[in-house]
Amino acid sequence: MITRESKNILVTDDSEFFRIKLSELLTKAGHVVTVARDGNDVVEILERDITTFDLLILDLHMPGMDGFAVLSWLGEKQLLEKLPVLAVTGVYDPSHVHKRLKGLGAMGLMTKALNPEQVLYMVNCLLFPDKAAQGSPRVPISIPVDITTEKSTFTGYLLNISASGLFLHVERHLPIDSKVNMTFSLPGYNIIMGYDGTLHLKGVVMWCTATSGEENFFGGAGISFLGLSHGTEELLNKFVRRERDRLGLEIQDI
């Protein structure tokens, strides 16, 4: 989702392909990105001015000075309090390196297999920890949604959801305070509640991005639910908890 609070992020990876893809993703989400090719490159950049950056996204598997060595250097220089680190792996089994990374001071770990919504979820948890701790926990997701307003009916995509609201990717502008009716099915709905079904929810547009979904994958609107029944709220809470457990997106549990 496009942020209205742009942050400076240093992306470090020896793979040009991954650097470009991650940089494009974070830039489209509203952030300013600097790239480093390897561990020696990131140390050189941070030695010049670490205060420039709000987050370091650090690949663990690099030739020469790898991500573990960069974390050790940051610890020795007592810089980890100034710069949160989100480690990235496409090689290591996350379950095997969690303990080591926690000891080295990393704040989170993600794999290169995550989709764009999941990547931004983890990045935003570290960039905006106060916001992440407020309100209902949310999870990234990508499913189609049928949307009806007073004037039209169209289809969008749900990019994240909580028990209190969701973010819709839509290729049109939705005015703030406008009411919407939404119809969609959650993945695993029958597993959670014991039967299959479709959700029909009402909501109000609380905010919208500066660009539309037609111009940017993360363009769209934030929706707050209206008039949820107790059963539906319980369903959404169960779904969110299950997805957070399944995806391993609890930053603090690293």
Question: What's the structural blueprint in terms of helices and strands?
Answer:
Layout: E1 8-12, H1 16-28, E2 32-36, H2 39-48, E3 55-59, H3 67-76, E4 85-89, H4 94-104, E5 108-111, H5 116-127, H6 129-133, E6 139-148, E7 153-161, E8 165-169, E9 179-184, H7 189-193, E10 199-208, E11 220-226, H8 230-247
Parallel strand pairs: 1-2, 1-3, 3-4, 4-5
Antiparallel strand pairs: 6-7, 6-9, 7-8, 8-11, 9-10, 10-11
Helix pairs in contact: 2-3
Give your account of this protein's structure.
This protein is α/β, with parallel strands linked by helices and 254 residues long. It folds into 2 domains: 8-132, Rossmann fold, CATH 3.40.50; 139-246, Thrombin, subunit H (Beta Barrel), CATH 2.40.10.220. Helix content is 33%, strand content 28%. It is built from 8 helices and 11 strands. It has helices at 16-28, 39-48, 67-76, 94-104, 116-127, 129-133, 189-193, 230-247; strands at 8-12, 32-36, 55-59, 85-89, 108-111, 139-148, 153-161, 165-169, 179-184, 199-208, 220-226. The chain has a 6-stranded antiparallel barrel with strand order 6-7-8-11-10-9. Strand 6 and strand 7 form a beta hairpin. The mean pLDDT is 86.
End-to-end distance: 24 Å
Compute the CA-based radius of gyration: 20 Å
CATH architecture of the largest domain, by name, is: 3-Layer(aba) Sandwich
CATH fold-level label of the largest domain: Rossmann fold
Helix run count: 8
> What number of domains?
2
Brief descriptors of the model:
254 residues, alpha/beta, Rossmann fold, Thrombin, subunit H, six-stranded antiparallel beta barrel, five-stranded parallel β-sheet
